[in-house]
């Protein structure tokens, strides 16, 4: 070897002759070149850095041992050559060179290092270098030297600083194997420490058991020595025998205590062993079964933890059972430990264990180190168990309270009314249902909606209405989920009401259809019928197709539209409908009376002192309801009578009264005259309203429409709704584009010439009830103001043709003159808005959604009433009308109400009520029908007419 200046370096070991230096051979690994190729390659250049090498750079077959104080001439060669950051330099044809890494491996002796080097190098390998050299402190030592002939180096004394750099460029492998070996070497040190601790613990326990066994043997020898003593008297012999018996019992207990101690230690060690080696169990099983599974499996500990997690999540009582098992285990294990270290019986030990678990202060009286340690541990476990028990109990109570507060508990009711959904009609609906159940002492109404239970209860409390014994139960949930429907006992309800949502008509009807599908999916079946509130008449057939015979539909838009038309054509009819539809006054009932079988309808009409018969439900015709039947129709067996009465238990047939039909004016109905009607606003069912007007108005009538829909789009929308505009014979459509809340748009209309003005809830704001009502009120005030300024300049004596043939009864005269000879009907959706409308002018009548709520409540109580309402609301068939008194009597004629009913039958009408001139409201189903009284021509009568 040579120094940096090229001078030869003296041999540090004079006893060993210096061998000439050998050049390291390099080899190109190719598929075609032979192993013994003699072609010379570029020699490897080795670098030794003064800085500590990185542990991340190493190869699988070359280990680098470097000393901190080593100085070598190879560093100078590297510096002269110009390579400072690479360990070896290869020609370019060898391709990319893998960076070699270094690792510091601690060694204890040179013999172990040589064995490690020999074990790493394969025997007989041709790629092994001919000279494997080691450099330590400037001395060169041959690697093929025998271990016993190697000189001891001074640097080996410091094992942490000793390192040898060995280069084997011919052997290269993956870096992952060496890194795993390094981690395994560091892990082995910890495993040896753990093994040493286990060994010490096992040795200590074994030594303890050995000493206890030696004590038992010495005690047995002591007893044997006492037996051979001959100077013991009889008394001593008795004591000896007694001690022997006690000792034998003790030794028997000593053997059982030893077993108990073994069991305690075994049970204590088992969890740690399982936790440590549980993942190896599947591998052991596969090894025993001689199976080799190459796929990666989830560790057994993770699977067990997952199973426990699922068990606690699925089964609600799993936590309680786990706590009970832990308590029993602690009592049993603690009792076994106390028995092993104490001198009492096993039963006493278990009892003490229970007392320590139940009361942590009971262990203060224990004597002895062993019993005290065990008792303290048992008391600590008892405190932990009772803390967990309190936590579980607290969580259970909190969960139950939250469940009750949020409305998640089950409703155990039967024969109740179930309301699905939430809308502004709910207040009026609950009020009507409470009035209907007043006669039976109240009922139960359950509301299921997707709102918080507390919010629903607060909104219901704001109604400030006396429910008269009816209980309203709110539950939070979705009507589309079967579990929530079962929670409210849907199969036991006598009636189910599905409310329309506050969305637009199509979305509301789609949701109602999904609710009906959910109801048909109830496995237990439905006991009662289902009343569905629809928003669009076109969607009604689809819901009936899905629901079948159990479904009764009430189309809100259609009902309101038809009622507005009837009220516009007949002033004061809205108040009549409120009395009939609501349960506060008279309403429809259907019941069978066997004593009336074989009686003609003209006698049935006057057979009820407290009710007014209106029709017959024919049993032979599949239960068809005939309103206003012929007088000659005779009731048959099974037929039922439709009446208007105060309640279903307030009427019954009685004796036939004496009725004097007498003479009366036979005035026919006046002919229909053309009318002019104005629609302010656009509704989605305006085509249906036009068809009703076409059936009710005389030819030559005009319908003006003022809204913001362009004229070119109106015809398309009306045609899409099913209206044949070219087929209209009685009315003519007049279009006016404008906003009904802008004064200058309304001033362009001849408001003083219209017979009736209908202010509709516009389709553009139907999603917002408050906005819709605000527009209706603004339009109403503007129209009234414009009329009041125009009409004084007109002829005040002009009278609408439809009332010109009447003798100007006071009620009809007030109705047409209250708003300057124009009947104004405003559609108000929110019932609270009615309080804002002045009631001084009766023509400005407000028709709200209360009528729809009343109809829903009535159909919910008896689904047969829906057939009656459908016919009375239709444009054909029987209808509710207001007729003047001159059709039935003379002025100041004194007759009873039965006589008027008989005279009405001559006109194919059923008189159901009247309104005298001085009264504010009409009377339906009056009491004292047989009492005589004077009538005036200013009075009017409410009748059910055939409409011919």
From TrEMBL:
| Compartments where found | Nucleus membrane
Query: In Gene Ontology terms, what is a biological process of this protein?
Result: potassium ion transport
InterPro entries attached here?
CASTOR/POLLUX/SYM8-like (IPR044849), CASTOR/POLLUX/SYM8_dom (IPR010420), NAD(P)-bd_dom_sf (IPR036291), RCK_N (IPR003148)
Q: Where is the composition biased (Polar residues)?
A: 104-118
Q: Where are the residues of the annotated region Disordered? A: 1-61, 104-150
As for membrane topology, the entry says: Multi-pass membrane protein
| Extent of Low complexity compositional bias | 49-61
- Write out the transmembrane intervals: 190-211, 259-278, 320-341, 373-393
Which PROSITE patterns does the entry link to?
RCK_N
Cite the entry's keywords alphabetically.
Ion channel, Ion transport, Membrane, Nucleus, Transmembrane, Transmembrane helix, Transport
* Annotated Gene Ontology cellular component terms: nuclear membrane
Q: What is this protein called?
A: RCK N-terminal domain-containing protein
The species this protein belongs to is Anisodus tanguticus
């Amino acid at each position: 070897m040579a120094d940096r200046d090229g001078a030869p370096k003296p041999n540090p070991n004079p006893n060993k002759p210096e061998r000439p230096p050998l050049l390291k051979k390099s080899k190109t690994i190719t598929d075609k070149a032979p192993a013994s190729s003699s072609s010379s390659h570029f020699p490897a250049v080795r670098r030794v850095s003064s800085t500590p090498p990185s542990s991340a750079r190493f190869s699988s077959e070359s280990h680098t041992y470097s000393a901190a104080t080593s100085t070598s001439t190879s560093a100078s060669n590297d510096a002269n050559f110009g390579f400072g950051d690479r360990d070896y330099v290869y020609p370019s044809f060898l391709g990319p060179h893998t960076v070699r890494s270094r690792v510091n491996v601690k060694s204890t002796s040179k013999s172990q290092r040589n064995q490690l080097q020999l074990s790493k190098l394969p025997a007989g390998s041709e790629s092994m270098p001919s000279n494997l050299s080691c450099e330590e402190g400037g001395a060169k030592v041959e690697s093929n030297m025998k271990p016993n002939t190697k000189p001891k180096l001074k640097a080996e004394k410091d094992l942490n600083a000793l390192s040898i750099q060995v280069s084997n460029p011919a052997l290269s492998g993956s870096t992952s194997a060496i890194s795993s070996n390094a981690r395994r070497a560091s892990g082995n040190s910890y495993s040896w420490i753990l093994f040493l601790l286990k060994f010490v613990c096992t040795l200590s326990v074994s030594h303890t058991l050995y000493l206890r066994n030696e004590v038992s043997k010495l005690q047995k020898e002591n007893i044997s020595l006492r037996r051979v003593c001959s100077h013991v008297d009889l008394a001593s012999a008795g004591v000896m025998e007694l001690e022997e018996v006690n000792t034998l019992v003790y030794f028997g207990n000593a053997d059982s205590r030893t077993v108990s101690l073994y069991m305690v230690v075994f049970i204590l060690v088992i969890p740690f062993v399982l936790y440590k080696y549980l993942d190896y169990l599947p591998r052991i099983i596969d090894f025993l079964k001689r199976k080799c599974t190459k796929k990666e499996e989830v560790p057994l500990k993770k699977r067990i933890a997952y199973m426990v997690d699922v068990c606690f999540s699925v089964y609600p009582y799993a936590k309680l059972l786990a706590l009970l098992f832990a308590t029993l285990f602690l009592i049993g294990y603690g009792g076994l430990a106390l028995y092993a270290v104490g001198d009492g019986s096993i039963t006493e030990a278990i009892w003490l264990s229970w007392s320590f678990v139940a009361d942590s202060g009971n262990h203060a009286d224990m004597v002895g180190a062993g019993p005290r340690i065990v008792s303290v541990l048992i008391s600590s476990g008892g405190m932990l168990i009772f803390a967990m028990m309190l936590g579980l109990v607290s969580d259970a109570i909190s969960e139950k309270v939250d469940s009750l507060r949020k409305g998640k508990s089950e409703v155990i009711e039967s024969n109740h009314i179930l309301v699905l959904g939430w809308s502004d009609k709910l207040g009026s609906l609950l009020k009507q249902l409470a009035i209907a159940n007043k006669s039976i002492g109240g009922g139960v109404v359950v509301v299921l909606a997707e709102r918080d239970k507390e919010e629903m209860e607060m909104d219901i409390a704001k109604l400030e209405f006396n429910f008269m014994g009816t209980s309203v139960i709110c539950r939070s949930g979705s009507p589309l989920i079967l579990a929530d429907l079962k929670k409210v006992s849907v199969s036991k309800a006598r009636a189910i009401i599905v409310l329309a949502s506050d969305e637009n008509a199509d979305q509301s009807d789609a949701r109602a259809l999904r609710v009906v599908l959910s109801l048909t999916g109830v496995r237990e079946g439905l006991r009662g019928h289902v009343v569905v509130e629809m928003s669009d008449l076109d969607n009604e057939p689809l819901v009936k197709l899905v629901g079948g015979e159990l479904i009764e539909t009430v189309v809100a838009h259609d009902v309101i539209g038809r009622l507005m038309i009837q009220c516009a054509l007949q002033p004061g009819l809205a108040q009549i409908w409120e009395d009939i539809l609501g349960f506060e006054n008279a309403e429809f009932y259907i019941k069978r009376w066997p004593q009336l079988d074989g009686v003609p309808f003209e006698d049935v009409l006057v057979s009820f002192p407290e009710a007014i018969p209106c029709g017959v439900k024919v049993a032979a015709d599949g239960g068809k309801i005939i309103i206003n039947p012929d007088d000659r129709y005779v009731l048959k067996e099974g037929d039922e009578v439709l009446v208007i009465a105060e309640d279903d238990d307030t009427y019954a047939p009685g004796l036939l009264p004496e009725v004097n039909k007498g003479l009366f004016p036979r005035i026919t109905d006046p002919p229909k005259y053309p009318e002019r009607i104005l629609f302010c606003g656009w509704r989605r069912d305006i085509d249906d309203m036009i068809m009703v007007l076409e059936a009710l108005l005389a030819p030559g009538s005009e319908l003006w429409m003022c809204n913001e829909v362009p004229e070119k789009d109106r015809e398309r929308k009306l045609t899409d709704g099913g209206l044949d505009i070219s087929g209209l014979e009685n009315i003519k459509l007049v279009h006016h584009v404008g906003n009904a809340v802008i004064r200058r748009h309304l001033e362009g209309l001849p408001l003083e010439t219209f017979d009736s003005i209908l202010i509709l809830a516009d389709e553009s704001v139907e999603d917002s009830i408050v906005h819709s009502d605000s527009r209706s009120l603004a339009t109403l005030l503007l129209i009234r103001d414009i009329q009041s300024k125009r009409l004084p300049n007109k002829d005040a004596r002009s009278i609408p043709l439809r009332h010109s043939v009447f003798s100007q009864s006071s009620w009809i005269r007030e109705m047409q003159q209250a708003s300057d000879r124009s009947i104004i009907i405003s559609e108000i959706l929110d019932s609270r808005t009615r309080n804002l409308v002045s009631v001084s002018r009766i023509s400005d009548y407000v028709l709200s959604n209360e009528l729809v709520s009343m109809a829903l409540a009535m159909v919910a109580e008896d689904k047969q009433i829906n057939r009656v309402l459908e016919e009375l609301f239709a444009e054909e068939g029987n209808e509710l009308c207001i007729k003047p008194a001159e059709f039935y009597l003379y002025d100041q004629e004194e007759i009873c109400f039965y006589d008027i009913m008989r005279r009405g039958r001559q006109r194919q009408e059923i008189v159901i009520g009247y309104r005298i001139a001085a009264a504010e409201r009409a009377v339906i189903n009056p009491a004292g029908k047989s009492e005589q009284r004077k009538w005036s021509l200013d009075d009017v009568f409410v009748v059910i007419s055939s409409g011919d």
